[in-house]
Backbone:
């Protein structure tokens, strides 16, 4: 019985990992290609949640979940074009400062527009409740969430590995100088990467709004987890992030099974252990520009 | 080209505009009041209501001529965290020359401000923090407490649960926030459950930054309890309630802490169970109705319990200053300790107990209205009659001397 309970936590952790992935994958891509740790990533997640509620009020839940990430992705183009672009080759401390400042500005802006009080959010009644498969209990909504994440993941993988766009991006991660020497400007690619990255974060916000509280500081809450996942997974590796997200979800579930109070601390311990033995992360590649 | 005279004129006008309010203020020698409350962080949403409430009370009092002919000047600031709260309290007393301190929601920040008040021998009206230890083990002569302590919250919700037969002979699973307030709440809850014939089959601690409760929900399903009782703080309750509804577990749920703002944030159809509160906007007394109507008119939404408590707290201070004709700390303390009564816009008046400085007042429990009965998005809570019952003394829901000793 004990073993079964544990297994149930593992499966649940995998589902939760899928959700972490939605936030962490974009963060990792922006980091890998541009060399910028986007501390404002959480702000886009929060904006996604607020925008989805605003849209859902008029057009319903589905429209909110689809249109909000698109709107935020368009905002991401401006973010890349006018702010992030200036910092690719600058001292990393500058990009850290500017994205951190931007995160604070975004949080306060949300507080001024929508108020400090959290906003109510509900899922459509048909998503509520659980599904029992075998003896495992799943939230119906989270299974839907997992399906969405899987579809997005497949899309991003195909984009990176089966298109000419992906070939340039992957080459840009490893040898931006060689890409430039071949006469390819990386900037338009970077715009697309940022657009996709913040769009995924916004989708995460929109999909998690019915589960967790929608409040101004929600972005700051998620950015830490996302960053930990990226560090554990390692830079430049698609599957590294996937593996790390699942691992963080599973380790958290197992920890809560045995030592409930240590649940939130478990991912930091995991990060510590991984970095001790694999300083580049689980599947991190050796990237010249970061060494 | 702008000539020099124009620049001088503009500069003089600017200086006058900046300097004038200071002069006006100096002439009327306003009574300065230091007000600290969390405006950011996990209690920031409640602090926003707190500022709305105290601001409205100050405007009403000032429009009616102030206190002893002097205007009230409430200086509100974000208390941020316990360390900053204490620094700001000290600065308000030293530099801003405030007569006394008010505010707080966070129990840990309230604790540090209490120490500043005692050191400076100035009054602190502790408004919104609920930990028992503040008015028990760590009490001091200079602090008075307005909000109900956790024992009262446990009694208010617990009695409603006991009436529905959810305690006696039942197996209760507790989930507790891992910090001062949560531990305090869990202690009181376990005492109540044991005293009323229930068994606690699990008490799990959860970190205050937990947003995903799914592993805990699985453990609840594995334990198959008769009742799930939560001792969670701040926005954790909202997250838990939303996810409990998402997973659709069949066990009845209840909790010993839930602010109205957190209930409103849960969203339609997500909240269930039995919860305690200190005041609510549907309270059917003339005072509360007038307050709610004025608040709605000013802010466009109903007041949350933290708006109400700040509003009555400033009125309490105004009454004390008017009665003693003074802002002197010792005179104010003597007035409160005389157990003078205050109108709290509730059915019965309240008073501060002289031995632990706790305001004794009515409390309430609430459940959720059946689907389709809500008038608007604020109106889905169903409130019970006040506890204790009209024929019982107000004292009985509060911790007795031997349960929560306070030595000043």
Residues:
């Amino acid at each position: 019985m004990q073993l079964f309970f544990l297994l149930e936590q593992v499966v649940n952790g995998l589902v939760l990992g899928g959700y972490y992935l939605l936030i962490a994958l974009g963060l990792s891509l922006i980091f890998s290609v541009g060399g910028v740790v986007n501390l404002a990533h959480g702000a886009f997640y929060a904006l996604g949640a607020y925008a989805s509620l605003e849209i859902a009020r008029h057009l319903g839940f589905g429209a909110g979940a689809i249109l909000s990430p698109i709107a935020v992705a368009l905002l991401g183009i401006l973010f890349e074009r006018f702010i992030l672009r200036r910092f690719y080759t600058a001292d990393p401390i500058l990009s850290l400062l500017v994205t951190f400042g931007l995160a604070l500005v975004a949080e306060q802006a949300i507080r001024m527009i929508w108020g400090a009080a959290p906003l109510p959010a509900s899922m459509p009644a048909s998503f509520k409740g659980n599904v029992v498969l075998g003896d495992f209990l799943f939230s119906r909504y989270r299974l839907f969430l997992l399906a969405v994440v899987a579809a997005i993941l497949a899309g991003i993988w195909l984009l990176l590995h089966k298109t000419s766009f992906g070939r340039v991006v992957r080459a840009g991660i490893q040898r931006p100088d060689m890409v430039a020497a071949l006469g390819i400007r990386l900037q338009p690619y970077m715009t697309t990467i940022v657009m996709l990255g913040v769009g995924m974060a916004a989708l995460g916000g929109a999909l998690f709004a019915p589960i967790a509280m929608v409040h101004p500081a929600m972005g700051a809450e998620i950015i830490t987890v996302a960053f930990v996942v990226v560090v554990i997974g390692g830079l430049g590796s698609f599957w590294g992030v996937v593996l790390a997200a699942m691992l963080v979800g599973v380790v958290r579930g197992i920890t809560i099974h045995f030592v409930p109070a240590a649940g939130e601390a478990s991912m930091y311990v995991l990060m510590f252990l991984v970095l001790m033995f694999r300083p580049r992360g689980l599947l991190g590649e050796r990237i010249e520009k970061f060494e | 080209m702008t000539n020099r005279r124009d620049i001088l004129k503009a500069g003089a006008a600017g200086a006058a505009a900046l300097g004038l309010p200071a002069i006006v203020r100096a002439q009327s020698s306003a009574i300065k009041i230091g007000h600290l409350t969390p405006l950011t962080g996990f209690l920031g949403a409640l602090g926003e209501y707190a500022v709305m409430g105290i601001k409205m009370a100050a405007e009403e009092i000032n429009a009616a001529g102030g206190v002893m002919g002097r205007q009230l000047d409430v200086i509100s600031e974000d208390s941020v965290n316990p360390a900053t709260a204490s620094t700001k309290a000290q600065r308000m007393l030293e530099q801003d020359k405030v007569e006394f301190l008010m505010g707080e929601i966070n129990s840990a920040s309230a604790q540090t401000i209490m120490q500043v008040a005692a050191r400076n021998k100035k009054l602190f009206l502790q408004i919104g923090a609920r930990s028992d230890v503040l008015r028990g083990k760590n009490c001091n002569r200079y602090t008075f407490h307005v909000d109900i302590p956790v024992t009262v919250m446990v009694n208010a919700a617990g009695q409603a649960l006991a009436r529905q037969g959810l305690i006696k002979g039942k197996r209760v699973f507790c989930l507790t926030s891992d910090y001062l307030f949560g531990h305090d709440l869990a202690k009181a809850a376990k005492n109540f459950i044991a005293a009323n014939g229930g068994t606690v089959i699990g008490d799990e601690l959860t970190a205050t930054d937990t947003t995903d409760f799914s592993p805990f929900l699985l453990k609840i399903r594995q334990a198959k309890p008769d009742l799930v009782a939560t001792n969670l703080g701040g926005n954790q309750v909202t997250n838990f309630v939303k996810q409990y509804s998402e997973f659709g577990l069949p066990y009845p749920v209840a909790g010993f802490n839930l602010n109205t703002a957190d209930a409103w944030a849960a969203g339609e159809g997500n909240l269930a169970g039995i919860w305690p509160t200190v005041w609510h906007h549907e309270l059917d007394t003339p005072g509360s109705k007038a307050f709610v109507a004025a608040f709605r008119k000013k802010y466009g939404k109903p007041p949350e319990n933290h708006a109400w408590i700040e509003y009555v707290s400033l009125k309490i201070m105004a009454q004390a200053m008017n009665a003693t004709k003074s802002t002197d700390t010792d005179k104010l303390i003597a007035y409160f300790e005389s157990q003078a009564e205050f109108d709290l816009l509730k059915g019965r008046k309240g008073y501060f107990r002289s031995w632990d400085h706790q305001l004794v007042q009515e409390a309430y429990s609430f459940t959720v209205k059946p689907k389709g009965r809500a008038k608007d998005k604020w109106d889905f809570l169903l409130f019970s009659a006040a506890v204790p019952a009209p024929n019982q003394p107000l004292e009985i829901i509060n911790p007795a001397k031997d349960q929560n000793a306070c030595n000043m």
Q: What stands out?
A: The first strand of chain B starts at residue 31 and ends at 37. Chain B touches chain A through 46 residues (CB under 8 Å). DSSP finds 13 helices and 15 strands in chain B.
